[in-house]
Amino acid sequence: MALASLAASLPIAASAAAAARFRFRIGFRGMASASAVGAAAGAPARVGVVQMTSVGDVDANYATCSRLTKEAAASGVKFLCFPEVFSFIGSKDGESVKLAEPLDGPIMQRYCSLAKESGMWLSLGGFQEKGPDDSHQYNTHVLIDDSGKVRSSYRKIHLFDVDVPGNMVYKESRFTTAGDTIVAVDSPFGRLGLTVCYDLRFPELYQILRFKHQAQVLLVPSAFTKVTGEAHWEILLRARAIETQCYVIAAAQAGKHNEKRESYGDSIIIDPWGTVVARLPDRLSTGFAVADLDLSKVEAVRTRMPIAEHRKFDSDWKSSTKQ
């Protein structure tokens, strides 16, 4: 589709100027076919959502991820979702940039081998991918299939540049370059919409994933701060599920990573009606929660409440604002 016609088809919340800044990567190399989506809507698939406390040690974090992957595989999980910055959280500015690698580098290849050995798909949120220059990285959500192949990747679009009340000042853009591509991918677990952490506060991204690109499952790997997590984590996730009638799988960092950084935790899976269907009993523990993802429930909710047919803002409306 030409960019001009694509921009014209976007929800009104996304202006033509904003639309021109983003590319759209759909499926593996094309739009999801009805048969592909229908095939994914068969028997329920067991998925897992990880909660962990990453530290400034790549090997220690990999050991945790490897252990959890093997335990999840033994529990029948076929798709395991890890939180943002799963492989490394440093205590000093610029540490992650020095560590950043391309997706075919040794760190990610280690996780590719883990996926293959476990016969499991992995969602790896917030990997430090080598950026466009030596001073910047990308915050990249990587999807690996059960053969160990990187099936798709999404570079975080919305960067966390905020002064959190009662907390500290964060400026992710100092060391991170924002992505410009919205990513939806076919999988055995339905059509996946890839996002990362702070993206959660921008509902138009999820609206595009659902209504333009037929997402059925939204992935939100995160490392929410303790302050923002207490205030907004669950309510925002449930809102995204309800608004889009999608499953939401939100893997979270938890607890103190070092003297400077603490994450809220509370990894959860939410169904398309907005109900939490899986979470760890302890918000700060390391482990995983499991749910059977049933895409027939997605279709049932959408059929009974057909909001896709009722939406009014797919085209320009007359404005009452006078200049």
From TrEMBL:
Q: Per its UniProt record, what PROSITE patterns does this chain match? A: CN_HYDROLASE
Q: Indicate yes or no for the key word Cytoplasm.
A: no
InterPro entries to which the protein is assigned, alphabetical: C-N_Hydrolase, C-N_Hydrolase_sf, Nit1/2_C-N_Hydrolase
The reply on keyword Hydrolase is: yes
Would you indicate the residue range of the signal peptide? 1-19
Name the keywords, alphabetized. Hydrolase, Signal
- Write out the GO MF terms: hydrolase activity, acting on carbon-nitrogen (but not peptide) bonds
Its domain of life reads Eukaryota
Under the heading SUPFAM superfamilies, the entry gives:
Carbon-nitrogen hydrolase
Task: Give a Pfam family name.
Answer: CN_hydrolase
Name all CN hydrolase domain ranges.
45-295
Q: What is this protein called?
A: CN hydrolase domain-containing protein
Species source reads: Urochloa decumbens
